[in-house]
Design a protein that fits this description.
The protein is an alpha/beta fold. It has a single domain, classed as STAS domain (Transcription Regulator spoIIAA, 2-Layer Sandwich). It contains 4 helices and 4 strands. Strand 3, helix 3 and strand 4 form a beta-alpha-beta unit. Helix 1 runs parallel beside helix 2.
Length: about 100
């Protein structure tokens, strides 16, 4: 995306099986000095605690490097999980990638 913004489109469940890979990708991007990352969750039907840990880990690392991670396209199950864990107060969550991008400019 323009403006030095990286869009990461996740696909499938974000659970114990996939969270290690997501955590690794986020760490690689942040270490490569990608400071503005949008995680598109529109194709993620399910997020469990392992997935949340991967997202929070990425956010923590981004914050340490003075970067930002924002989320977009969260499906209803993910929205409920973010609300129940109060992570909707930690993450900036937007309906679309375009709106997420605007928040990073």
């Amino acid at each position: 995306m323009a403006g030095n913004i990286t869009l990461v489109q996740l696909d499938g469940r974000l659970d114990a099986r996939s969270s290690v890979q997501v955590k690794g990708v986020l760490a690689e991007l942040i270490e490569a000095n990608q400071k503005k990352i949008i995680l598109d969750l529109q194709n993620v039907p399910f997020i469990d605690s392992s997935g949340l840990v991967a997202l929070v880990s990425g956010l923590r690392l981004a914050n340490e490097k003075h970067g930002r991670i924002v989320l977009c396209g969260a499906q209803s199950q993910a929205q409920i999980v973010f609300r129940l864990t109060m992570l909707d107060r930690v993450f900036s969550i937007h309906p679309t990638p375009i709106e997420a991008r605007q928040s990073l400019l």
